[in-house]
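pipeline/complex-builder :: batch 7 item 3
reading input block
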Amino acid sequence: MRIPQTQGSPKPVGRKAAAAAALVLVLTSCGPATLPPGDQIVDRDEVRNRAVHEMNLRSDRRIVSPAADAYGTVPEPIRVGVSNFASNLSQPSYVVNNLLQLRLDDAAQNTLRFAINSTLGVAGLFDVATALGVPAEATDFGETLHVLGVGEGAFVMHPVIGPSTTRDTVGIVVDHFLDPVGHFVAAPESGYLLAARAADRLGSRYQFDATIDSIYYESADSYAQLRSLYLQQRRFELRGGAADYEDPYAAEDPADDAAAVAADPYYDPFSDPYFDPYAQ
Amino acid sequence: MRNNLLAVRRRTLLSTALAAASLPFLPRPALALNEAQAQALVQAAVDDVNRVIASGASDAAVLREMERIFATYADVPTIAVSVLGPPARTASPAQLRAFTEAFRGYFAAKYGRRFREFVGGSVQVNSTRAVRSFFEVITTVNLRNEAPFELRWLVSDGSGRPLFFNLIIAGVNLMISERTEIGAMLEARGGNVDALTQHLRTLA
């Protein structure tokens, strides 16, 4: 490749873009971060996290769950429409992150989906795209950081938002500023958008009522259960499609297990997510 | 005589060492269970699940059927012991038996309720692959108004017949979740397995 000679100082914008592109290239060349096994948990601030969880449970019992029940009385087609509308407006943010992840196929799919649902789907009220075989490839900046090789850090419980990790918390903040919809939609439409997203959350709380109730109010330790479920599900999401699916059976050789025991004083055979209970 | 014995011993030792050294290079022993049988087990379970969620039966009847499916196709004793973890090694056989029975009811009721949420949808078997000494059967759960998700069944005949011993529900490992749950219950009871068994009976 021939490197063009620069005449004098290049335009600052061009230089910035080039630097950003170079940074993305360098970072993506490192590959995604290694995902810890299912039951590996780093919880540095457990006392604070548990206190926040208790607060979240109180607000769920007093506000969110009753509000979700009330919202559940709205006819289902309307609730589905609101949920489709909110989800359609997340698509531009997915595309931006897909591009940063260099997952161009996902970027194309999410763009096509946004185009179909915004037009044929009447401003996103109907999810025509999924019916046409173009489902959403949901993503976020936390995943982008993962793709760039940033590990998840510690588990964090946030008020209202709920379970997250150090990395995904950074992701939430960055997504807020990165979201193209946020740059193009001003008040009062931005208010409607926020309302649609809140209603969508209530809809999920209503739809998964039995499961969420069983985790929040029927588990022996709802904090530990939620923490485990969140981390397992998040790591599963980040593993992505078959392409970058990590092989959990890599340590097949018994000699590897012996080496693992020798190397790690805290080695726990149970930490293998596909632990074979019949192995002697 | 003595020399002879030594020689024999030395020879045994040598051949043992040789055998041990060549162990990693030997072909793996043939599995008693094959891919088709593992998939057939899951197919049978999935057929039962699909029949129940399409039946339009009452909630209570669906729950009862789901509990029966879990009792039929799951290796409950293995799941129970594995979920209990290290305390299973120090518990007496009688304690372990009682715990397993209580766990059976708790497990069937809990996952029966979870599977009851599949009503209106369907489960479809996709593929099977060998993992060490067992098989992983990958299925997809299709629900109304919802993105399909993956449900993996880990099947082994370690109990004497093919049964599933773990489920990976959209990336969430049943054994890991239950270890957290049962571990928390046991801790709340000061590590007393009998008290844990007593508590599990109330949840069935």
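note: Residues 151 and 159 of chain B are 22 Å apart (CA to CA).
queue -> next item
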